[in-house]
Structures are given as structure tokens and as C-alpha cells.
């Protein structure tokens, strides 16, 4: 009797599997496209900015609503759509660059609706190609990223192809347009390639070449080629990177060394990043980078100073139960003090994160202190700056 029951169960399972396979085969193209996943997310943010200049203190209360849809996969073919809406929830007491009141300090979150992503994709887990509007995130997003910190994301109209196996990944992108964080579109013709080989968890070698065209801004047509060596071994992780950036005006070197060690729930980090200058001709810049991640959250160095920038920083980060956070200290100097000034100031950044049910919460603070000599170069721009963010996110 037991063997009979097992035989009947096996027959039922086999019949069910055959039935499901037949149903999948019968499903047509339109049915597969409709058999997808939709999601909606919300990100509320309060941001305040105080600067020691003639501008009024700024305050922004904004809500980003994101809706997207991913189709099913039909013979390797799929599609993705995403729309963002940024809404101002209170009086507009800030300068959003393309809107708002210029009498206030800048908070780069203008109100508006954007077609953030929309592409078709063909391929498998090993190799794929997609065409349309998409985010492009390479490595730590220093040179190419999504600027996801701002409420309006940076995306690209591009053709992107990639191949990957257990150890090797290569990605190529040809970019036709850039959707910037202000909702504008820049007509470009860029080519990007990124290759990564993983020797072991403690040794990952990455090489890249980003060849960017002119979009109407000085030195925006630049070629950057570089290599990084990263990894993690036990409680220690590290990054060593060097890149050469060339334009018609200058040729400059970028270097970044950093490491961290974990002791209990706390991670201690130390880093040194240099945005090199070629005399007075120019310095390394990051046209497509997620620059808020680097050189202080006060965003005083989104554009590289004339003499370049050397950023020596130390961090203490930790996680205690459901709460994580930490503090970062930056000491800024010029790479070439003969062009500008030696001392560019310092900054202290602080963040704490947690969750309340399905809602992610964050408090973030940045305090930049300018040096006297750097302040003297531009008494309206190079000033003491304090920024505070309160943020709540959720997704369905």
C-alpha cells in the first residue's frame, strides 16, 4: 500500500509538471509581457541648508513617488518602465536651480515628473543587451553613477551590453542622451567600457575607459582610463585606484587609497583621495559621478577647485541591532597650492539609520568649515555650511 501511494504521488507530481510546462509554452508574447511585477515606492525628505553668506537659509520638504513595471520574460526578451514624480510639500523656500527662489541656498530637488527608465532587454544571466533609458552604475559610482541621492535620478538613453561568468564581467555602453537631475536632457555621444576580474574575494581587478563627448560645458569632453584593485580579507577591506583623465586643455591624475578594519560592531576606516590638477589648465572632474558620496556630504566640492583636491578622511561606522550609523572627518587641501590655496577647510559628517516597521528612517548631518585663505578667494561661495536631512522611505 505504501508503494502504491508513492507511485500515485509521483504520477500526480509528474502530471502537474507536464501541465505547467504546457501552459508556459502556450503563453503568448502579450500574455508574458503582462505577467510582470509592479512596485511603488515613496521617499520623503526634509533638507535644510545654512551658509555663512548673503543667501537665505533654505528648507525643502519633498516627496519622490516612483512607479515601475517589469514584464515577464519571453524567449529572453523583457521590458522595464519607471516613472518618478517629485512633489514640493510646503512653501518653496529654496533654490532648485531650474526653479525656486535664487535668494535662498541651493537644494537641487526641483518639482517635476520624469520618465526615469524605459528599455527592452534581450539575453540571459550570462550575456544580455538592452536599449532605451536606463541607469548606468559602474563600480563605486565615482566616474559613472545614478546620483541617486538627489530626488531626481540621473539616467541615460543608451545601448548597454554585458557578459559575465563566475570570475569575469565586461560591460559596454554607448550613450546618446543624459537625463540630468534637473529633468533636462543633454545630447551626447559617449562610449564606456568596464572590465572586472575576480581572482578571489580578497583580490578584484577592475579596468575601465570612459570616453565622454562635449555637452556644452568646458572640459566636458574628457577621456578617463583607470584601474582599481579591491578586496576583502577577514575583517579588513581595501581599495587602491589610479586613473588618467585627458581633455584638450589638461591631463591630470586621479588616485584613491582607502582601507578599513572591523572590530566587533564597529568599522574603522582611513582614506586618501586626490583629484589631481594640471597646473592652471584644469583638474580631474566627474561629469557623471555620484559625487555626493565623496569629499563631504555638504557638497562643497561637487566641482573640483582650480588647484585640484586632496581629501584625507577617517571614519568610524557601526551597527548596533537595528540601528546603524557613524561619523566621518575630512581634511581638504589643494593638490597644487600654486594654483589656488593650500588649505581648503575641513568637514564633519554624521549619519544614523534605522527602521520602523516597513519604513526606513535616516538622520544625516554635514558641517563644513572653510579656511580663511579659501574663503578669501570667494566670500559668497567658499563659506561655512551646515546641512541637515531627515528622510523616510517605504516600498510596496
Give the C-alpha Rg.
Answer: 24 Å
Largest sheet: 18 strands, antiparallel, barrel
Mean residue pLDDT: 91
Instruction: Calculate the terminal CA-CA distance, rounded to whole Å.
Output: 49 Å
Order of helices and strands: HHEEEEEEEEEEEEEEEEEHE
Outline the low-pLDDT stretches.
1-25
Q: Give the tally of β-strands.
A: 18
Shape: globular
SS strand fraction: over 45%
Question: How many helical elements?
Answer: 3
Q: How much helix, percentage-wise, in residues?
A: under 10%
- Give me the secondary-structure category: mainly beta
Brief description of this entry?
The protein is mostly beta strands and 396 residues long. It has helices spanning 2-26, 29-34, 372-377; strands at residues 37-51, 58-70, 77-88, 112-123, 127-134, 155-164, 168-179, 185-200, 203-211, 223-233, 236-246, 251-263, 266-275, 309-320, 323-333, 343-356, 359-369, 385-395.
Overview of this structure, please?
The protein has three helices and 18 strands. With 396 residues, the protein is mainly beta. It has an 18-stranded antiparallel barrel. A hairpin with a 2-residue loop joins strand 8 (185-200) and strand 9. The radius of gyration is 24 Å and the shape is globular. Mean pLDDT is 91; it is low at 1-25.
List its traits:
disordered N terminus; 396 residues; 3 helices; 9% helix; mainly beta; 18-stranded antiparallel β-barrel; globular; single chain
How do the strands and helices of this protein lay out in sequence?
Layout: H1 2-26, H2 29-34, E1 37-51, E2 58-70, E3 77-88, E4 112-123, E5 127-134, E6 155-164, E7 168-179, E8 185-200, E9 203-211, E10 223-233, E11 236-246, E12 251-263, E13 266-275, E14 309-320, E15 323-333, E16 343-356, E17 359-369, H3 372-377, E18 385-395
Antiparallel strand pairs: 1-2, 1-18, 2-3, 3-4, 4-5, 5-6, 6-7, 7-8, 8-9, 9-10, 10-11, 11-12, 12-13, 13-14, 14-15, 15-16, 16-17, 17-18
